[in-house]
Amino acid sequence: MPLIPASTLRRCQLALGILVSLLACQFMTPAALAAGCHTPAAGSPERKAIMDSLRNPVMGALKQRVVFVVAKLKVCGNWAFLEAEPRRPGGKPVDWTIGDYADAVADDMCGGYVHALLIRRGGRWKVREHVICATDVPYVTWPEEFGAPAALFSNVASPATDAKCPYAPAVGSAERQAIMGAVRAPVEKDLNQDVKFLVKKFAVCGNWAFLEALPQKPNGKPVNWALSSYAEDAAAGMCGFHVDALLIKKGARWMVRYYEICATDVPYVTWPKDYGAPAALFPHVEW
């Protein structure tokens, strides 16, 4: 029997190993695939490298320096997905009026977030796709379009999850205007100035509504926190600059059940238990 050359044997073993790996991936469940994913720790080199890769294109579009408040971050192999809110280096909201999205913000057509897909090549993270100011879910088709693993987005809610509860009222709709109008009155009183809202998260479920928004001046510029009841907190860096509100509909009227301004944590974690609101209203966000 002729001997098989060592080089040929090694090539065959390598090919067999690759085939086995491919077959294993083919039959792994989504849960098993997701188990190989992770969220880089705050302050880790990996997390910093991902943020730094995204920072330049975002700064170019917003015409100002930014840092990111991370909502979701996940790495699967050589792919990374990031959902984050851009802020100024001091933690204050960015000035949307000076960037490429000024018109979208003025028309209430900006979600205020950055969504990005990155790939690692040769040890460096590179942005494969990114979307700023989306009002929908821009990454639904990214696995198919870019070949990214679906597990990368497995913990992200899809619009197909439930078309009726929760849902976000359409921009310009009477329902959306009624809810924001109900929140505006107490917020303007606390901030001692007229405001409009840059919506971050908006959900309605039955007779309940949840709103997370950034208050702005009517012209779209940041509010003057020095005039507000939260001046000292804002000056001390102890203000999240957001409004979080829970509303209930009684009859045909929306009424504020509870709200918080300037929270630095996630104030709505206990609201389902405290007020009997449906848990589906509230996003599960990693801050």
Summarize the structure.
This protein is α+β, with helices and mostly antiparallel strands. It is built from eight helices and nine strands. The strands form two sheets. A five-stranded antiparallel β-sheet has the order 1-2-3-4-5, covered by helices on one side. A four-stranded antiparallel β-sheet has the order 6-7-8-9, covered by helices on one side.
Topology:
Elements: H1 6-27, H2 30-34, E1 37-38, H3 45-62, E2 67-76, E3 79-87, H4 102-106, E4 114-121, E5 124-132, H5 142-146, H6 174-191, E6 196-205, E7 208-216, H7 231-235, E8 243-250, E9 253-261, H8 271-275
Antiparallel strand pairs: 1-2, 2-3, 3-4, 4-5, 6-7, 7-8, 8-9
Describe this structure in words.
- A hairpin with a 2-residue loop joins strand 8 (243-250) and strand 9.
- The chain is α+β, with helices and mostly antiparallel strands and 287 residues long.
- The protein has 2 domains: 33-153, Nuclear Transport Factor 2, Chain: A (Roll), CATH 3.10.450.630; 174-281, Nuclear Transport Factor 2, Chain: A (Roll), CATH 3.10.450.630.
- The chain starts with 5 loop residues before the first helix and ends in a 12-residue tail after the last helix.
- It has 8 helices and 9 strands.
